[in-house]
Protein: Vps53-like domain-containing protein
Organism: Rozella allomycis
Amino acid sequence: MDLVQTINTLFPDEHSLDKLDEVLLKLKFKNYKLEKEIGEIIRGQGGAVDGTKELDKAKKAINELYSKILSLKEKLEGIMVKEVTKDIRALDNAKKNLSSTITILKRSQMLLTAVEQIDQLKEDYFEIFSMVQVAIDLKSYFEPISKDSNRIKTLLNKTENCLNNLQKRIINEYENSFSRQGHFQGDGKKIVGCGQVADLFGNEFQMKIIEFYCNLQLQDYRALINVSTEISTLENMNRRFAWLKKILKTFEQEHESLFPKGWNVGKHLAELFCIDTKKDIMEVLLRTEEFQVKVLITALKETVAFETQLIQKFPNENSEISNFYRVISSCFEPYLSYYVDEEQALKNSDLEKEIDEKIFMSSTDLFYRYKQILKNCCSITNKKALLEISRIFGSTLIKFLDQLLKKIDSFQNKSIYIYCVLLNTLDYCHKTTQQLEEKIKDLIDVDLKEAVTFQNEIDSILLMISNSIKDIVKFIETESSPMFSIMTKLPWSTQSSVDDQSSYVASLNNLLKQSIEKCSETIQSKTFFQSVCDKFVDSFLQVLLQNIYKCKTISEVGAEQLLLDCQSIKKQISVFSSIGTGEESLTYSKLLNKGVAKIESLLKSVMTPAEPVDGLVENYILLNPDSTINQFQKVLELKGIKKIEQQLILDIFSKKTNKLQEKIPPTPPPLPQFANKINDNIKKLMNLNFK
C-alpha cells in the first residue's frame, strides 16, 4: 500500500483538511474492525503462525498510517498559525505607524498654530503664556525626530526664531517700563505677564532681566563710590548699608510684584551690592597709609552685623552656608594685624596695674579680659587674627604668672596663706586655660583648629604648681627651724631619765598642726592638698633625720628620749592627710612609715651598747641592712666613740658586710642576749600611749 498516495486521495486540497478528524475516526473504527476480523481468523486457524505474522504486519501498517496523518495535521496547523500571526503583526505595525503619523501631524499643526498665535498676540502676554508653554513642550517633542524630516526641521527653526523674537520683546518691555533713574513707569499688568512668560524660558533668560533691573537700581550707588565721596570712607559704612536698605524697601513696596516670586530679585540685588561694596572697600584699605584701629574695628563690626541681617533676611532653603557669610568682611582680614598689635600693647600696659591692685584675684580679672577680647574678636573674624589673639593670650598669661611670682618673692612678711592662695591661682589658671583652648577651637575656622594650642603654657603652669607645693613645704620647714634648733642644743649625751616628750615637741606639733590645717582650709583642690601632705611628710622626716645627726653625742637614754619624741611627732602628723576628708591616704601612710622607720633604725642603733663591739656591729647591720660604712661611722660619732676606737669597729663592720655580700645566710643570726633585751625595751616604749 502506498501511504502517500492514500493520504493524497483522502486530502486532495486544503479544504479537505476540515474532514481530518472525521477521517481519523473512520480509521480508528476500521482498525478496530480489522483487529476483530483478524482475531476471528486466527481463532479459526487454531493459532497458526502465519496468521499471527499477517496480523502484526497489518497492525504495523495501520499505525504508520495513523502516525503520518497526525504529523501532517501538526505541520498544517503550524503553517496556518504562522501565516495568521504574520498578517496580524503586519496589521499592528501599520496601525502604529498610522497612529504615530496622525499624532505627528496633529502636534505639528498645534505647534504651527502656537507659533502663529505668539506672533499675532503682540502684547497679550497672559494669552501668549499658554502658547509659549505649548510651543516649548512640542519643541522638545520634535527635536529627537527632526533629523529624519526636513519639514520638521523647518518647523523647529520657525519656532526657535519666534521664541527668540519673543524674548527680545520681553527684554524691551522691561527696559521701557523703567526710567533711567530706576522708577517704574510702565503697565504693571503687562510686565507681570512678561514675567510669567519669561519664567518659562529658564534661569539664563531670567538672569538677563534680573541683572538689568539690579544694575539699574545700583547705578547711583556705583557712581557715588567711584568718585571717592564721603560715603566711601570706613567711617561711613552704615551709610552704605542704609542705602541698600532703602533700595530694598522700594523694591519690596513697588517692584517686587512685577517679578515672579521664585526669581529672588531682592536677594540678587543685595548680592551685587555686596560685591560692589567689597571691591570698593578693598581699594579704600589699599589707599589708607595709617590705620586708626578703632575706626577699622568699628567698620568691621558694622559690616559683620550687616551681613548677619542679610543672612536672616534671605535664608537658604538648604543647609549650605549663606552667600552673605563674610561676603564683605573677609576683605578686612589682611589688616587685622593692626588690631592684634593694639590688643598686645593694651594687655601689656594693664598687666602691672592688675598685679599692683589685686595679687590673686587679678587672675580672674585677666581671664575675664580674655573673654571680652575673645568675644570682640569673634564678632569680627574667626580666621588668622583669632589665632594670633590666642597666642597673645598664652604669652601674656605666662608673663602675668612670672610677675606674680616675683611680686610674692618680694614680700617681706610671707605666710603659708599666701603660698596656698598662689597654688589656688595656678590651679585656676590651669583649668581655665584648658577651657579657653577648647572654646577657641570651637570658634575658630576649621582649617586653623589644629594650630590652636596652649600646651606650652599648660606645661609651664604645671611646673609652677609643682614648685608652689615645694614652697609650701619649705615654708613649713623654715617655720620649724627654731624648734629643731632647740632639739639639737639639748644635752642628749647627759640625759639621765626619759620623759613623755621633750620641751620642743609640743611647740613643733602645734606649729605643724596649724600649718596643715591652714592648708586644708585654703587650698581648694583636694588633689593638691594631698600632694602638699605627701610632699611634706617625705621632706619633713628627712629634715628631722638630718637634725638628729646634728645632735653631736647622744647617750643611750637620750636615744630612748628621741625615740619617744619621734613617736609623738608621728602620732601628730599621721592624721594630716585625712583633715577635711576623713579618709586616710595610702600613699601618705607609706611615706610616713618609711620615713619614721629610718629614724627609728638610727635611734635603735644609737641605743645599742658599744660593748661588745661585735654585738654593736651585728645589731646595726640587722637594723640597717643597706647601710654604708659612712652612715655607720655617723652612728659611732653620735654614740660619742672616739676616732681612734672607731677604726677598729669600722674594720669589723667592713669584714662582716663583705661576708654578707659574698654569702647571704637563709636566716639572720640570733641577736646577742643584750640586743634582745634592748629590742624588748624599745617595743615597750613604742606601745606606750602618749597624751
